């Protein structure tokens, strides 16, 4: 009797969860398996996928070219590219017979941009989250509301605003022209759009709220008595921050980092709109393979690599610092 | 340690809020620009019809924009209803029952949150194109009967990425749930369905509503997944705006953005009002 009851309870759980599971299996897991399979395939001249088991697409991503005969020259080219300290936006390492740096540059540029964005967003967002968390309850609601409004304004519209601000005769240059002419200084309008810098600004702008909200959630949980205890024990504000506030708010920073890093790595919208044609990130590469270049197999391989990189970052951070409901709270 | 005592912190906070709001203010101001090119602000437009609101009137006479707005709403409503029901069921299952596929369910529900949207978008695109190719050739469908990407595929994809967020939100509410009220209802003779309808559901309703609200806004805001799963006749507002940005940008886009911001602001204010009334 008891056994039957338990069985029926388990059955009921399965039944309740099954629509969601079915959805996840059909529209998430099967598609992911499908692009994994596709990534080992190739394409015919019409752009149709030819299934097979070849590593060609992954090899192409490493920059190893078809007319290369030995692996030695490949590493020579690779080392030369790595040794070149040029900024990520314009590494101009020539392709050698054996090594074409194009795709590694795209990957490196995307990772670097994601790290820069995450770092800037933490630096801008942390003080704000701290300020909101330490405000009175009434004020706190108003300030949180102010953080939410830009977040709810559409993603594409938010990038568009930066075109108006940054372009040649845009708002920023107009303001600077007026200011410098008032001061009697010479001024040359800045060439800000399209540029890699504009992409960085756009990314920071898009993802700042995603960092503020989880950081706020953890900071708000720190009891005021913690600060008082630290002060009673003679800690000065800066020391209190380093030894009490920062460690206790780490889960929020980690959750925010994942919420920012993963989408920055994967988006193609900001770079497409603010970066111009020459700024290609992994997201743009994937998008072009599916829509313009018509090479879904190569695009799938790039997606698998992108997913592997973001998963590596996520797993590393969660293992190292651990986080739970902070992601959900955002 | 109080905020008030640190002018430096206050200045910094003010600057960051400035950074967050200046683009929005610029967007709105340029919706009233008299210059069609919209590069510089050349004074407030005053043209028939509608005077200063000229660009808004142009927008409301724009069939493509209205169609896109209609599609956006249809998609958001359909995906919200389905994902809220399915997600709430899954949240109840995960919070209350031990069943065999539980661990698998937990993991698969986290996947959409930690994989980049573009990967989800292109993988769903690959799935749909394969299914359509097989079905179309198997049934030998004619050119105008062929299955293809459209509103349906976008809705299916939106439901997929919304479910995990609904589950998370509802579970958070179920976490502090006192099961004794349900037992009391059963002791008083209510059957399980009545108990669910009259006791459980009203108690978890705030969680269900915020889950639905989240699903709705995620759907409204989505660009990337829609981009890969949409087809002819199923353009949404974000896709429409993106298309315009690659051509000439008139203040009409700003008018559209302003209307969007106004709608969002109203929705946020109403939901805040409701929340504070409940509390």
Describe what you observe in this structure.
The complex is a heterodimer of chains A (330) and B (279). Chain A has helices at 2-38, 56-62, 71-83, 102-133, 137-152, 155-166, 171-183, 196-221, 224-232, 237-266, 269-274, 282-291, 296-321, 326-329; strands spanning 42-43, 49-50. By secondary structure, chain A is mainly α. Chain A has 2 domains: 64-100, no CATH class; 105-327, MetI-like fold (Orthogonal Bundle), CATH 1.10.3720. In chain A, helix 6 packs across helix 8 (196-221) and helix 9 (224-232) packs across helix 10 (237-266). The longest helix of chain A is centred in the N-terminal third of the chain and has 37 residues, at 2-38. With 279 residues, chain B is mostly helical. Chain B has a domain at 62-247: MetI-like fold (Orthogonal Bundle). Chain B is built from 11 helices and no strands. In chain B, helix 2 crosses helix 11 (251-278), helix 4 crosses helix 6 and helix 6 packs across helix 8 (192-221). Chains A and B meet through helix 1, helix 4, helix 5, helix 6 and helix 8 of A and helix 1, helix 3, helix 4, helix 5 and helix 6 of B.
Chart the SSEs and their pairings.
The complex is a heterodimer of chains A (330) and B (279).
Chain A: H1 2-38, E1 42-43, E2 49-50, H2 56-62, H3 71-83, H4 102-133, H5 137-152, H6 155-166, H7 171-183, H8 196-221, H9 224-232, H10 237-266, H11 269-274, H12 282-291, H13 296-321, H14 326-329
Antiparallel strand pairs in A: 1-2
Chain B: H1 7-29, H2 54-60, H3 63-96, H4 102-114, H5 117-138, H6 151-175, H7 180-187, H8 192-221, H9 224-229, H10 237-245, H11 251-278
Helix pairs in contact in B: 2-11, 3-6, 3-8, 4-6, 6-8, 7-8
Number of helices of chain B: 11
CATH architecture of the largest domain in chain A: Orthogonal Bundle
Query: Could you give a short account of the major beta sheet of chain A?
Result: 2 strands, antiparallel
What's the overall average pLDDT of chain A, rounded? 85
What is the H/E string of chain A? HEEHHHHHHHHHHHHH
């Amino acid at each position: 009797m008891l056994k039957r009851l338990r069985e029926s309870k388990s059955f009921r759980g399965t039944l309740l969860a099954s629509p969601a599971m079915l959805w996840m299996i059909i529209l998430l897991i099967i598609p992911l398996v499908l692009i994994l399979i596709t990534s080992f395939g190739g394409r015919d001249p019409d752009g149709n996928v030819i299934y097979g088991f070849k590593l060609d697409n992954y090899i192409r991503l490493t920059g190893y070219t078809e007319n290369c005969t030995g692996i030695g020259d490949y590493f020579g080219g690779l080392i030369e590219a790595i040794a070149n300290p040029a900024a990520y936006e314009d590494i101009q390492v020539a392709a050698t017979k054996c090594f074409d740096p194009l795709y590694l540059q795209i990957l490196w540029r995307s990772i670097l941009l994601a790290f820069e964005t995450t770092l800037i967003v933490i630096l801008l967002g942390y003080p704000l989250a701290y300020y909101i968390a330490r405000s009175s309850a009434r004020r706190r609601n108003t300030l949180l509301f102010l953080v939410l409004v830009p977040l709810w304004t559409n993603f594409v519209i938010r990038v568009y605003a930066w075109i108006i601000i940054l372009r040649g005769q845009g708002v920023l240059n107009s303001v600077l022209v007026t200011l410098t002419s008032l001061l009697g200084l010479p001024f040359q309008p800045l060439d800000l759009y399209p540029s890699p810098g504009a992409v960085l600004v756009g990314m920071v702008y898009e993802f700042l709220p995603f960092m503020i909200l989880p950081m706020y959630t953890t900071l708000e949980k720190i009891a005021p008595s913690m600060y008082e205890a630290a002060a009673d024990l003679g800690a000065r504000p800066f020391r209190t921050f380093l030894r009490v506030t920062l460690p206790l708010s780490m889960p929020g920073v980690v959750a925010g980092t994942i919420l920012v890093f993963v989408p920055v790595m994967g988006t193609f919208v900001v770079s497409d709109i603010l970066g111009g044609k020459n700024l290609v990130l992994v997201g743009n590469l994937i998008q072009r393979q599916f829509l313009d270049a018509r090479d879904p197999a190569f695009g799938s391989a790039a997606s698998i690599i992108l997913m592997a990189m973001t998963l590596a970052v996520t797993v590393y951070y969660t293992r190292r610092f651990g986080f739970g409901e902070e992601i959900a709270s955002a | 340690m109080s905020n008030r005592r640190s002018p430096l912190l206050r200045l910094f906070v003010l600057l960051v809020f400035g950074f967050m709001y200046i683009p929005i203010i610029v967007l709105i101001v340029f919706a009233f620009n008299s210059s069609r090119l919209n590069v510089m602000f050349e004074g407030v437009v005053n043209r028939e019809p509608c005077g200063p609101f000229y660009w808004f009137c142009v927008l409301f006479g724009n069939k493509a924009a209205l169609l896109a707005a209609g599609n956006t709403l249809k998609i958001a409503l359909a995906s919200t209803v389905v994902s809220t029901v399915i997600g709430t069921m899954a949240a109840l299952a995960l919070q209350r029952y031990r069943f065999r596929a539980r661990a698998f369910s937990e993991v698969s529900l986290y996947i959409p949150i930690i994989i980049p949207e573009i990967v989800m978008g292109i993988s769903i695109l690959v799935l749909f194109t394969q299914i359509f190719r097989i079905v179309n050739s198997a049934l030998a469908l004619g050119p105008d009967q062929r299955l293809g990407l459209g509103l349906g595929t976008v809705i299916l994809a939106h439901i997929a990425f919304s479910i995990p967020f609904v589950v998370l939100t509802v579970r958070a509410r179920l976490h502090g749930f006192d099961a004794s009220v349900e037992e009391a209802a059963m002791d008083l003779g209510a059957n399980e369905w009545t108990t669910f309808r009259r006791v459980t559901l009203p108690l978890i309703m705030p969680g269900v509503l915020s889950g639905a609200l989240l699903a709705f806004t995620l759907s409204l805001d989505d660009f990337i997944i829609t981009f890969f799963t949409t087809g002819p006749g199923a353009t949404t507002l974000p896709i429409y705006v993106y298309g315009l940005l690659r051509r000439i940008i008139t203040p009409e886009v700003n008018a559209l953005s302003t209307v969007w911001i106004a709608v969002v602001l109203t929705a946020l204010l109403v939901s805040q009002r409701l929340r504070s009334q409940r509390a």
